[in-house]
Amino acid sequence: MSIVAIVGRPNVGKSTLFNRLIQRREAIVDSVSGVTRDRHYGKSDWNGKEFTLIDTGGYVIGSDDEFEEEIDKQVELAIEEADVIIFMVDVETGITGMDEDVANLLRKAKKPVFLAVNKVDNSKRAGDAVEFYNLGLGEIYTIASTNGSGTGDLLDAVIEKI
Ligand code: GDP
Ligand code: MG
Hints:
Elements: E1 3-7, H1 14-21, E2 24-29, E3 38-46, E4 49-55, H2 64-81, E5 84-90, H3 97-108, E6 113-118, H4 123-128, E7 140-142, H5 151-159
Parallel strand pairs: 1-4, 1-5, 5-6, 6-7
Antiparallel strand pairs: 2-3, 3-4
Helix pairs in contact: 2-3
Guanosine-5'-diphosphate binds at residues 8, 10-16, 57, 118-119, 121, 144-146.
């Protein structure tokens, strides 16, 4: 079964989207050495096409450097493991340095990447979201994980690649 990973820095809404999309939650603590943060795996489907969804992230305590290193590790693991990557960013905060860092890693990946701009709850935020074209990852998908808005278009695009 194809694997779709959701990556991005903490608090952008990855787990909210994951929980909305999966049918049955299977929490798995990754056993890869050095990667101790939790990765949650779940099964999902869209238009009859099934896939495994991974929610990356977890508990990061430490300095900013450690923090960034951990996110990079999760992204690199996702690039290895996943067939398709959803890179989530947050329209509330706009582009951050960490987003640029992740975008640089993903631009080198030979996997399809979909840029999901989350927390687009109103039309003003839909306007603000265009800023994310500056990440250089192509099309943006504006979504609101809390109510599911925009997620259909995102999933339509994702399943075309799996
Ligand atoms: P994660 O750290 O990336 O997994 O982010 P979470 O899923 O834990 O969400 C972080 C915060 O953002 C929570 O307070 C969510 O309720 C909030 N959030 C997630 N999606 C949305 C959204 O579409 N709109 C708004 N306004 N808040 C959201
Ligand atoms: Mg989370």
